[in-house]
Amino acid sequence: MSFFHANQREALNQNLAELQGNINVSFEFFPPRTGEMEQTLWQSIDRLSELKPTFVSVTYGANSGERDRTHGIIKDIKERTGLDAAPHLTCIDATPDELKKIAEDYWHSGIRHIVALRGDLPPGSGAPAMYAADLVTLLKKVGDFDISVAAYPEVHPEAKSAQSDLINLKKKVDAGASRAITQFFFDVESYLRFRDRCVATGIDTEIVPGILPVSNFKQLQRFAAMTNVKVPSWMTSMFEGLDNDAETRKMVGASIAMDMVKILSREGVKDFHFYTLNRADLTYAICHTLGVRPQVASA
């Protein structure tokens, strides 16, 4: 390692130490499909809840069965942990009246935070009747929800251009969104350039980076291909030869994510959203490095 790079690493680590946990973290989970997956989910929620996240979110599928699981998990998280539990809500395969009823049910259940998304279009379907900005408007009519929306540093796969994608994000913010959470990414520069463009466009909400700690690289490549996310060649090299070595993959994935949050924290980022894939170990380790740790009761 050159003297320059050693100094850079020292500066990053010093900056991280100075944060002293003065950052905000949030976590995303998805509804389990089996009893075993449900056990893993709750183990992860229980462990990560010790870190006092600003909120936890639960994803939402287009079919009614998965929707019901999301509803149930959100209410269970709130009752069991007291955390701010934010359900994902999508416009796809639901009428405005149905969405209004779902939102009213959440409001009456004490849920005040919703992640508002358009949702994935079914194969062969035409243009959707509603978009995320329309959903934000609908939610604000039901109650004064705290609303998170999605942002895409490397441009949404269906967007006509980067500029049109940015205009769409501004519509969501102008409709009442409190923050934007980004799609996962690995090119830190793409996030920083995107954040600058948001400011130039008049988007004044927090652009929260979505961090995906990678443990299954082949799965990541499939995700990335569907979502227009660039997987750098250096990352491919780092995971090469580890297809049958899960433990080393975890270490590599944690190292990459830690380096990302170190650089982002130095660039002034104070909020991080972790895509946990329902597993606590990597996210917990990264948060520990950031100084986000369970509070120890004083004697």
Walk me through the topology.
Layout: H1 3-19, E1 24-29, H2 35-49, E2 55-58, H3 64-81, E3 85-90, H4 96-108, E4 113-117, H5 132-142, E5 146-151, H6 162-174, E6 179-184, H7 188-200, E7 206-211, H8 217-227, H9 233-239, H10 246-266, E8 271-275, H11 281-290
Parallel strand pairs: 1-2, 1-8, 2-3, 3-4, 4-5, 5-6, 6-7, 7-8
Helix pairs in contact: 1-10, 4-5, 5-6, 10-11
Outline of the structure:
It is built from eleven helices and eight strands. By secondary structure, it is α/β, with parallel strands linked by helices. It has a single domain (16-290), classed as TIM Barrel (Alpha-Beta Barrel).
Straight-line distance between termini: 44 Å
Overall mean pLDDT stands at 89
What is the rounded Rg? 19 Å
Give the C-level CATH assignment: Alpha Beta
Number of domains as seen in the coordinates: 1
Taken from the alpha-carbon principal axes, the silhouette is globular
Instruction: Give the spatial strand order of the biggest sheet.
Output: 1-2-3-4-5-6-7-8
Summarize the main sheet: 8 strands, parallel, barrel
Q: Into which percent range does the helicity of residues fall?
A: 40-55%
Succession of helices and strands: HEHEHEHEHEHEHEHHHEH
- CATH architecture descriptor name: Alpha-Beta Barrel
